[in-house]
Known about the structure:
alpha/beta, Spore Coat Polysaccharide Biosynthesis Protein SpsA, Chain A, 2 domains, ten-stranded mixed sheet, 43% helix
Amino acid sequence: xxxxxxxxxxxxxxxxxxxxxxxxxxxxxxxxxxxxxxxxxxxxxxxxxxxxxxxxxxxxxxxxxxxxxxxxxxxxxxxxxxxxxxxxxxxxxxxxxxxxxxxxxxxxxxxxxxxxxxxxxxxxxxxxxxxxxxxxxxxxxxxxxxxxxxxxxxxxxxxxxxxxxxxxxxxxxxxxxxxxxxxxxxxxxxxxxxxxxxxxxxxxxxxxxxxxxxxxxxxxxxxxxxxxxxxxxxxxxxxxxxxxxxxxxxxxxxxxxxxxxxxxxxxxxxxxxxxxxxxxxxxxxxxxxxxxxxxxxxxxxxxxxxxxxxxxxxxxxxxxxxxxxxxxxxxxxxxxxx
Length: 338
């Protein structure tokens, strides 16, 4: 079985006669034992009764710890555990999570991210108030390895409700993370799961949902997306696979858009993620001193878009590399987007 499906994997409906909870909190995990305990405790702190909420860790054959023992110790029998027979890759693990979910609402919460008190209550209220919604998500914050807040994601609206022009808004760039969004299981059953690439695959999924369903939103900050050094150390960044995958997503999204908006959205996305590539190039330098990775990111970013601001950022970075300047003091922003 291919690790990266070429088309959306089929999600089978729950069998007749199976007792179904309202919620399925499915936690895909791979070599994140250092963060998983905190993730599980955050869920347990606001978990509904077992009849109302399924909680399960789906382990993609981790090698960093005895994850089953960890889950058993933290969950005290409340959290189920499933281990893949071999490492399947993130997309197949997500597919397993969704197929194993029995609830009407599915929250895919990565094993290194967090939710805040009130997340499930807020999502419940959104679905109760807007039953036509296929998915609902919240504002979120970025946190570091120590769980200290780094910055907030900008709010999409001032009040909770149906996100206006969700298709065009979400198609322009990635505006949410897995930890923020709950999706009706019936939506995955209709549209299938994640496919195509393993960087930015969720962006395509959220846009696919917005094409067919209203999407609800709350500006409450109820989830935390973790940034850590491992997030910039993989081959994805060192080879610019991140930008190449994102371009696949942008092109795939085109088929979901009105003809009159395709060119504008594509140009907007290319520009945004070209600048994002320069940001990653900075991370590769300041975090890993990876000169070759910097050059690859810059080269691919320039294939996507060029403007004077990009050249200014690149020249500034290359000057610091030439002078071997390796310290970086970030500006303190009240909000920042990625």
